[in-house]
Amino acid sequence: MGKVYAVGIGPGDAGQMTGEARQVIADCDVIIGYTVYVDLVRKELQDRELQDKEFITTPMTQEVKRCRMAFEQAQGGKKTAMVCSGDAGVYGMAGLLCELAEDYPEVEVEVVPGITAALSGAAVLGAPLIHDFAVVSLSDLLTPWEKIRKRLHAAAEADFCICLYNPSSRKRKDYLKKACEIMLEHKAADTVCGTVCNIGREGECSRLCTLEELKDVKADMFTTVFVGNSQTRIVNGRMVTPRGYRNVEDR
To answer: Distances in Å between the alpha carbon of 118 and those of 10, 68, 162, 224?
Structure first.
């Protein structure tokens, strides 16, 4: 039986790639994925780990084609790794591979988890996701904006901390501002927020701001945005959302 691994490579830096992900990539014959992510793997791993491997890349929006190529490689007897940034099961390719697996019953799919941007970005800022939180992508390429809008309203009204993926792009320059205006209907203007760009990669940078200020922050597809809940505050320059441990201690 052939095998395809959906591998989450983390934010990009080899130090934040799990040992399991690294070992699977080292054991596979074929590495396939979106061009940017395959290039990250080639840059971060050592030559001995990538020796004699075949690399296959496709541009964005060719996800189905990419998955079918992976299955075809596995059908031919090659162990194949589909690499994804962050976690393969969080806005990654694991779901599509599992869906398409019905067409390739002789190929097994295994999902190898990785560190998603919500976690790696939160670590840069401090501890913004200690309590309940929601993750929402602002990309309307696959999800209608009306559904995204409803989810933002619901998460903000419920006082979740909110992590935003894909906050802006060349075609969606005002989406982060629109999202902030929606959340401001339920959250205070001085709600603590943070952004992290290029997590774990060259040029990583972060900033703290208020929800009102976030409306005018310049972001792109490599930016992850964190919006606090009503308890989130800045402690020693870090974004922190208390869970309530100290309240229990004081009883």
So the answer is: 11, 29, 10, 7
